[in-house]
Amino acid sequence: MRLLLFGPGYSGLALTRRLLPLGWTVRGAVRSAEAAGRLRGTGIEPVDIDDTGALAAAAQACDALLVTAPPDEQGCPAFAALAPILRAGARPRWTGYLSTTGVYGDRGGGWVNEASALNPVSEQGRRRVAAERAWLDLGETLGLTVAVFRLPGLYGPGRSALDRVRAGTARRTVKPGQVFSRLHIDDLAAALVASITRPRAGAIYNLCDDEPSPPQDVIAHAAELLGVPAPPEEPYDGARLGAASRRFFEESKRVSNALAKAELGWRPAYPSYREGLAAIRASEQT
Asked: What are the residue boundaries of the NAD-dependent epimerase/dehydratase domain, all occurrences included (predicted)?
């Protein structure tokens, strides 16, 4: 079985680690020789995005296609590159598109599920809505099995609150009522494998943990695991934050993962930040 990754970064590498032991081969679309060199060290065979023939051959040969690259001002780069190839006859058995729970916008801490209306508050969220629609419409038109996965903040080894506390960059900004969902990178990979195993055309899944929580609690727990004092709490002040941080605090919602559990038989191995951070910390100590 063969996987083609468009945007072979943190998420794609996590899926690769799951699939290689199962006998899959993985190819990743990249633009630079430097990126190609990094991929080879992970067991992924690089494909030059700008080599139309090579990209078409990889898409024609793949059984599964995963798009992780975010959209930009021109739209989804993967769609621009791959839609003509798919229209020309490439037929992966499964195509996954990684989106964001930001498409739901702000719900004042309320719950959302896959049937909730989309109301993004940021330009990035609006681009994601457009990219989702483009991929789902293409799948319906061509008879492809396309699934969309809406993700919250991802964390895992090397990218967690533990790293921010150690680096001295963690802040415990408190905005009353603010909660967010998150997802351990290994739980994302497990859900993607489950979807590849049980494909459904037009599927949309929220993938997240079971316990939406205030961000300051996550930082405090990370500090406790490291045996260091937690950063002091700071009241939210949007004027003092950068644009990315302000966008984060503009949205508060609780995301339901019930559909992915019901249809895919998936359960997060790390149902809250406590289990996830504890596992990362334990791996660091071995």
From this structure: 97-207
